[in-house]
Amino acid sequence: MEWETVIGLEVHVQLNTATKIFSGASTAFGAEPNTQACAIDLAMPGTLPVVNAEAYRKAVMFGLAIDAGIAKRSVFDRKNYFYPDLPKGYQTTQLDIPIVGPGHIDLQLGEGKTKRVRIHHAHLEEDAGKSLHEDFHGMSGIDLNRAGTPLIEVVSEPDMNNSVEAVAFAKQLHSIVTSIGICDGKMAQGSMRFDVNISVRPKGQEELGTRTETKNLNSFKFMEEAIALEVERQIDILEDGGSIAQETRLYNSDAKTSKSMRSKEEANDYRYFPCPDLLPVEIDDDFIEAVRKQLPELPAERQARFVDTYKLSEYDASLLSASADLAHFFEAAASSDAKLAANWVMGEVSARLNADDKAIAESPVTGDMLGDMIARLKDNTISSKQAKQVFEGMWKGEGNADAVIEKRGLKQVSDTGALEGMVDAVLAANAAMVEDYKNTDESKRKKKLGGFMGQIMKASKGQANPQMINQILMKKLNELV
Amino acid sequence: MAVDRSEIEKLAVLARIEMTDEAAEQVASSISDVLKLVDQLQAADTDGVAPMAHPMDAVQRLRLDEVSESDQREKFQAIAPATENGLYLVPKVID
C-alpha cells in the first residue's frame, strides 16, 4: 500500500529579551546555576508576575512577520502539571486567546517549487528550568535559571508531507526569527526546540491517521532522522495489522531510536484555567503599527532583493539571505564584486567557520575586510591563489588585506616589462623545451604550455599574474615557431 | 452537577495528593456542594455577555525589560532541603 505522511510542528522559540517574561531576573545564557532565578521564578509564596513589555513586542513582531492576526486582547492561562523544574506546579501560557492568530510561512523547496504552511497560532509562555539527572546521591539537580525565559510556541497546521518540507519549515522559521531579531537562533543552547506531530494514512484517504508527538528535537538533522524513524515505525505497525497509539515519544539521537514517554501520558490532563494573577493584556493599533514600522526586511524579501540587486541565482540568494548576520556579512563583502563575494562567503568563509565551530558574527574576517580583499583581486594586485593566502593571514589576525599583502610580500607582478623579462629568461634557460614545443604538432602545443608556466611561476615565486603570463608566453612562443 | 469518588481520586493523582477512601468520599461530597452553587450561576442568562478572563475589569500593566533582580541564591538555598554546586536537589525524576 502507498502511504502518505502528515506532519505538523510545534516550535518553541526563546525570545532574546534581557529579562524573564514575568520577573526582572536576567536571561543571559551560561550563568552559574540558580544565580538568575529570583523569588518569582522560584514561585515563592506571595510573589506576583508582571508581564515584560518587550516579550509582547517581540511576539507581535513575529505575528506581523508571518502575516498573522494580532489579538488586541490576549489572556494568560495556567497549564497544571508537576515536574521539579516547574516550581509553581503550572506553566503560565496562553490557551484560548493567544497573542498571534492564524498566519502562514512560505517554503522554497528548490527548483522553483514553493509551499505555503499555515500557522494555527503562536502564543507566549514561560520556559521551565533544567533538570540534571547525573547522580547527586540518588537525587536530581535543578537549575532554575531558564525558568521564566519568554517563549513563543509556534503551532503549524499539519500541512507538511515529508521530512524535507518539515526541515525547510524549521529552517525558514529559524531564518525569520533571527532576521527580525527576536531570537538568537542558537539551537545547541536550546533557543529553538521542535516537537513534531506525525501520522500516516493510506494515500488518497481524507481522514487523518492517529498521530504521535516526538518532543524536544533541537537540530534540523535530528528532526530529519526522527521523522524518518517514526514514519517507518508507524507504517510497519499498520502493515502488520496493528494500530498506532496516540502518545508522546522521545528521540535518542545517539542510539537513533525512540521510545514512548509514558509518564507524560498519565499527566496529560492539564486542567487549564485563566491565570488569576494576570489581567488580560490589551494593546492598541498604535502599538501594533509602531512594531510594524520596526519590522526589518524579511528573509523572503531579502532573497528577492539579492536576486534583483546582485544578480545572484535563487539558490545562492536563498543561502545568503537565510540569516541576518550572514546577509549583512555578504552585503559588506559585495561592494566590488557580488558574485565573487558570494563564492567566497559560501566557500572559504563557511568552511573556516565550520572548521573553527564559529558563527558568522564571530568571524575574525569581517565582511568589509573580505570586500577589500576582493577589491585587490579585482584590480589584479593579487591572484586568486594569493587571495587564499591573504584570507588565511586575515583569519589569523595579521590585519586587513593590504597589511597581509604587504607583510607576506604577496603582490602580484602585472608589469608587462617585468613579466616579459621573466618569460624571456625562462625560454632562454630551457632551449630543449622550446625545441620540443616547435616540433610538436600545432593542435597539441597547448598541452606543452603548462611546463613553461610552471617554470615562470616558480621563477616569480608565484607572484606573476597568470593571465598576463599566459598571453605573453603564447605571443613569444608563436614568434619563435 | 456532582462529582463522584473516582473523579476525586483521579484529581488526587494529578495533584500528587494522597487520600484515603474515606477522605475521597468526603471531598467528593463537599465539592459537589460547591458545584451546586455553580449550577445556580449557570442558570443565569448570559446571552450577549462577553466572557471575562478575570473578575477585575482592568488590564495588565506591562513592565520595562530591565534587569531588576540580583543574585540571591545563597538566601534561597539556605531554606532549601538539599543543594549541591548551586543546584537544588530533588528526589530523582526521570522520564
Secondary structure layout plus pairing:
The complex is a heterodimer of chains A (481) and B (95).
Chain A: E1 3-14, E2 51-52, H1 53-65, E3 73-74, E4 77-80, E5 90-93, E6 103-108, E7 114-126, E8 130-136, E9 139-143, E10 150-156, H2 163-179, E11 192-202, E12 212-217, H3 220-239, E13 248-252, E14 257-260, H4 262-266, E15 273-274, E16 281-282, H5 285-294, H6 299-310, H7 314-320, H8 324-333, H9 338-356, H10 367-378, H11 384-395, H12 401-408, H13 416-429, H14 431-439, H15 449-459, H16 466-480
Parallel strand pairs in A: 12-13
Antiparallel strand pairs in A: 1-10, 1-11, 3-16, 4-5, 4-15, 6-7, 7-10, 8-9, 11-12, 13-14
Helix pairs in contact in A: 1-5, 2-3, 6-7, 8-9, 8-10, 10-11, 11-12, 13-15, 13-16, 15-16
Chain B: H1 5-14, H2 21-43, E1 62-63, H3 73-78, E2 83-84, E3 87-91
Antiparallel strand pairs in B: 2-3
List keywords for this structure.
heterodimer, A: 481 residues, alpha+beta, Arc Repressor Mutant, subunit A, 3 domains, eight-stranded mixed sheet, three-stranded antiparallel sheet, 16 helices, elongated, B: 95 residues, mainly alpha, Histone, subunit A, two-stranded antiparallel ribbon, 3 helices, 41% helix, flat
Question: What does it look like?
Answer:
The complex is a heterodimer of chains A (481) and B (95). Chain A has 481 residues and is α+β, with helices and mostly antiparallel strands. Chain A has 3 domains: 286 residues, no CATH class; 112 residues, no CATH class; 65 residues, Arc Repressor Mutant, subunit A (Orthogonal Bundle), CATH 1.10.10. Chain A is 40% helix and 19% strand. Chain A has an 8-stranded mixed sheet with strand order 6-7-10-1-11-12-13-14. A 3-stranded antiparallel sheet of chain A has the order 5-4-15, with no helix packed on it. The mean pLDDT of chain A is 91. In chain A, helix 11 packs across helix 12. The radius of gyration of chain A is 30 Å and the shape is elongated. Chain B is mainly alpha-helical. Chain B has a domain of 38 residues: Histone, subunit A, CATH 1.10.20. Chain B contains 3 helices and 3 strands. A two-stranded antiparallel ribbon of chain B has the order 2-3. Chain B is flat, with a radius of gyration of 22 Å. Chains A and B meet through strand 2, helix 1, strand 8, strand 9 and helix 4 of A and helix 1, strand 1, helix 3 and strand 3 of B.
